[in-house]
Amino acid sequence: MKKAVLISLFLVLVTSLWAQTPEWTEYCRLQKIVRYEDLPSDSAYNIYYKMDSIYSAIPLYTDLFRYLEKAIECNKQEKMKELAFRLIRWKCFDNRLFDNPKMEPLKQMEFWAELDSLAKMHCDKRKYTDYMRKLYDLQMSDQQCRKLLHQPLNQEERDSVWQIIRQTDSLNLEQLKDLIELYGFPTWEKVGDHYAFCAWLIAQHSEPNFLHYYVEQMKKAVANNNAGRSELAYMIDRDLMNRNLPQLYGTQIVSVYLEDNMPENRLWIVEDLEHLNDRRENMLLEPLNLSDIELYDEKELFRGN
Asked: Whole-angstrom Cα distance, residue 276 to residue 281?
């Protein structure tokens, strides 16, 4: 007797990064150390310095911001100036970051007036505060209903939660469509990286046709350095998997429930597996160790006696 296999989809929990070259592999290794280990400020600063030297410029906005924090903690005044002005050049920069108490020492520096002026000029170009607030509200509703899944639930309760999630996703999608029609696509330049991520999250949980539309819009934004490459990689892979096609970047995993009803994680089918990590580097995704992941086999969808 054949037994149907239940499949639930979720994202691979990997850190976003630059390819399988030795330099990028080292960058990823250093990034994990500085993000997840409790290091003294001077040690963390030195690691960020090494990361910055690998590509002659840290390729991730969030890493650059943390580097600036460590330069401030270590009172590296020339580096503080360099990093602060580099940070402003990112389209996703939000001048409110300078309201962070950790940024307070910058305001005592001789270059602060020029820095503050540039930050305000950048902020004046952004006239979408209402857009940003509404995207944040959508993201909060998206995450709030999913928090219920982390509680101990029986099957009936879990089914009820998923019904709530589907209803929430549907309402959020309609609101996101209305916002895009009113304000345009949520690029870094319009709303900054945080609120662009809020919109991306809603799109990730949307129906396939809209997700495919979002992929095409994100491609244009990334080409203009106006959206995140790693987020685009996840979106492309989800879109391909929705259409039952091989993914490109290895961001999608399926959890396969077999006869013993225990889940086994499998990497969704990948096109040109040999060059997967080269493509991941180009999208700022860390190398994937394929020896740790089993590949998905469609034949396991059904198993006979």
From this structure: 9
Burial class (CB in 10 A: 0-12, 13-18, 19+), 240: buried
CB burial string 250-287: b at 16+ within 10 A, e below:
bbbbbebeeeeeeeeebbbbbeeeeebbebbbebbbbb
Q: How many domains are there within the chain?
A: 2
When pLDDT is cut at 50, 70 and 90, the band that residue 113 belongs to is very high
Print the domain residue range for 81.
Answer: 22-124
Predicted TM-score (pTM) of the model is: 0.83
d(CA 155, CA 163): 12
Residue 124 vs residue 192, higher pLDDT: 192
**Same domain, residue pair 118 and 233:** no
Same-domain pairing of 107 and 148: no
- From CA 162, how far away is CA 84, in angstroms rounded? 44
At 154, is the pLDDT very low, low, confident or very high (cuts 50, 70, 90)?
confident
Tokens 């997840």 sit on residue? 36
